Amino acid sequence: MLAISTLWNALKQPDGAALFDELKALGFETIELSQHLTHEQVEQLKPLLREKPPCSIHNFCPSPNLSQPPTPGNRAPGSRRHELVHLASLNTDERKEAIRRTVRTMELAVELEVPIVVLHLGEVDTYDRSYLLEALYDYGEREFEAFSKKVTEATEWRKRKQAKHRDAVFRSLDELNERALRMHLHIAIENRPRYYQIPNFDEVGLFFQEFYGSPMRYWHDVAHAAMQECLGLCRAASWLEAYAAHLIGVNLHDLQGIEAYHLPGTGDLDWDEVFAQVPADVVKVLEIQHGEARAVREAREFCQTYLS
């Protein structure tokens, strides 16, 4: 299955019906609901999704208590988009609120017969050194000692605080896995692009070890993995080598430098290698922000050449 995420036009088209028509005209098998949809957009989409349910939905959807949906978290050197309410929060009230919003997303999935809810687990509360790594990458310093030193500093700072946040995630996933089992849903944990976000490579394994036999699965974002490799954190191929047995879906988008959400085939990723790793039977979603309709249709055809 090849689908397209509503990320492509959710931020540009406020009317849910028009948003759906624009996506349908692109020729994909179905759509994925992103976390960038407002409550109004979701309500307008509901009657249009009865015949062909979405393949997946990202947490939180709809965007909670926002007049405008969040931006997609593209690269912003020197800045950080803090997730104040997330499943790894050490503040009990905030973590419970994140669970409540996740359950709301899961209830929407059941209503629309969406089989997979993709979870963004949150982050470790540590000083963000991403902008330093990005600056060194931009200046071509990746192979030098200074870059390696900054990677080590960043990850060491994360290690000092990550245990408590992991414990918070364990508590959140314990509750959400029980609900997913009752609701006949899969919840899927997604790899993230930043070193301070959860899960890192090792944490994926820890979570599956803890919740073996649960409805939890792995959702792989190819550009997030590639960004981590660019920034010296983890080899991109390692994620699917280690966690293919848990894999249920992938998000496909390209990197230009370390800017994400570009059309496959228009950036720096080796798509022969990407598709060689991705199993044929998992859900595949173009999660793109850039590109006009004609270019998106060309990207769909580009991906289909690997799937035929």
Task: Provide the descriptors you would attach to this structure in a database record.
alpha/beta; TIM Barrel; 8-stranded parallel β-barrel; globular
Spell out the blueprint of helices and strands:
Elements: E1 2-5, H1 7-10, H2 16-24, E2 30-33, H3 39-45, E3 56-58, H4 92-112, E4 116-119, E5 122-123, H5 130-138, H6 145-183, E6 186-190, E7 197-198, H7 201-210, E8 216-221, H8 222-230, H9 238-243, E9 247-252, E10 254-256, E11 259-262, H10 271-277, E12 283-286, H11 293-307
Parallel strand pairs: 1-2, 1-12, 2-3, 3-4, 4-6, 6-8, 8-9, 9-12
Antiparallel strand pairs: 5-7, 10-11
Would you write up a description of this structure?
With 308 residues, this protein is an alpha/beta fold. The protein has one domain: TIM Barrel (Alpha-Beta Barrel). Helix content is 44%, strand content 15%. The chain has helices at residues 7-10, 16-24, 39-45, 92-112, 130-138, 145-183, 201-210, 222-230, 238-243, 271-277, 293-307, and strands at 2-5, 30-33, 56-58, 116-119, 122-123, 186-190, 197-198, 216-221, 247-252, 254-256, 259-262, 283-286. The strands form three sheets. The protein has an eight-stranded parallel beta barrel, surrounded by four helices. A two-stranded antiparallel sheet has the order 5-7. Strands 10-11 form a two-stranded antiparallel ribbon. Strand 10 (254-256) and strand 11 (259-262) form a beta hairpin. 44% of the residues are buried. Residues 66-70 and 73-80 have low confidence and may be disordered.
